[in-house]
Amino acid sequence: xxxxxxxxxxxxxxxxxxxxxxxxxxxxxxxxxxxxxxxxxxxxxxxxxxxxxxxxxxxxxxxxxxxxxxxxxxxxxxxxxxxxxxxxxxxxxxxxxxxxxxxxxxxxxxxxxx
Length: 114
Description:
By secondary structure, the chain is mainly α. It contains five helices and no strands.
């Protein structure tokens, strides 16, 4: 899946004693992506860096592979004050949507209820 997901981490979560906890956290993150994307689009400066960091932290926790790196690159550019930092936002936000959909499909296929 274009390496959107960290399959090893997800298999580990699904094989945990209470996989429904991991599934629930993932589905909560998925449900929060649209609001996070809107916060990021509306934010500037330090608020933008904080909003990117929040989405990135969740992406790591739920087992995503590519999105955390993409968000980190934009976040670091914003923190450096790079005027071109926001140029990477559209692609990163599109990747967030694709990653959320892939993660949702993975947990559906795993058959683990939230």
